[in-house]
Amino acid sequence: MENEQKLKNIVKDRYAHIAEQGKAENAASCCGATTPSNKVYNIMMDDYSKTDGYVEDADLGLGCGLPTQFAKIKSGDTVIDLGSGAGNDCFVARHETGAQGKVIGIDFTPIMVKKARENADKLGFNNVEFREGDIDNMPVNNDVADVIVSNCVLNLVPNKQKVISEIFRTLKPGGHFSISDIVLVGNLPDALKEDAEMYAGCVAGAIQKTEYLQFIKDAGFQNIQIQKEKPIVIPNDILEKYLSTEEVKNFNSSDTGIFSITVYAEKPGEKSSKPKIDLKNFQEESTSCNPNTGCC
């Protein structure tokens, strides 16, 4: 369709514009609004408003699931959010990991990173960090995260296998991910696959469900599970921008399905645990230490 960098630039430009508008303006021109829709970004969103840790200012309504709901985040965990946007999933994750944990959001749109940092500053969260970078080349060291989450982002990246390999690299042994994304069953009409707006709207860049799951398996993950699955229906007023009346009818009656799935998988290995220090023995050993030996 386009080369990888051109596709990335399309997505970056679209999401920079979305960040500048905010949720209210986006919703007014997206699917689900009371007036005919002309954008595809919000047709997949789930409602976060009842979720612990939810921050309204950080919710731009761009997700397709609630991955943090299924991510099994524990107190003290280090969590990475891929495509962190204005920070909503990071703040929900921070509620779960607590002040003693750490959350790192990664996004390649500068204005999104700026918006997320401003939101974190307003909340006073000093353990939530936002980094600008590509999720297929994460600005993160190996074996850093206990948990990785992402909400409707991998479908926007041309090289999905590279992203999955990066997830594997940055997770600790025994760590896991929970990712919501868009996948296909059957083929989209060419007019949808080749449209930039449909790509930025998470539809044209989606791949086959079986291929998506195979990429995860091939990367070395185990215990792969689909935690949630829901069909995505593109309203006719959007389809009619790309397809004739007859083509819309044929598409709606075809076997092609667009789905939001939340996938869980684990990186093999045992999680390392920090040894507990016996303070009593530590004090006894300290007092018996000989300074001449250099042990104190």
Description:
- The chain is α/β, with parallel strands linked by helices.
- It has helices at residues 4-21, 23-28, 67-70, 88-97, 110-123, 160-170, 190-193, 196-200, 209-218, 236-239, 245-252, 279-287; strands at 78-82, 102-107, 128-132, 145-151, 171-185, 207-208, 222-231, 257-266.
- Helix 5 (110-123) links the parallel strand 2 (102-107) and strand 3 (128-132).
- Strands 1, 2, 3, 4, 5, 6, 7 and 8 form an eight-stranded mixed β-sheet that branches.
- It contains twelve helices and eight strands.
What's the quick description here?
The protein is an alpha/beta fold. The chain is built from 12 helices and 8 strands. Helix 1 crosses helix 5.
CATH secondary-structure class:
Alpha Beta
Largest sheet: 8 strands, mixed
Q: What would you call the quaternary organization?
A: single chain
SS-based structural class? Answer: alpha/beta
CA-atom Rg in angstroms: 22 Å
Content of β-strand: 15-25%
The general outline is globular
Q: Label the CATH architecture.
A: 3-Layer(aba) Sandwich
Number of strands: 8
Superfamily (CATH H level) name? Vaccinia Virus protein VP39
Number of domains: 1
State the separation between the terminal residues, measured CA to CA: 65 Å
Helical stretch tally? 12
Mean pLDDT: 79
Low-confidence stretches: 27-42, 274-296
Instruction: Give the fraction of residues assigned to helices.
Output: 25-40%
Report the order of strands and helices.
HHHEHEHEEHEHHEHEHHEH
What is the CATH topology? Rossmann fold
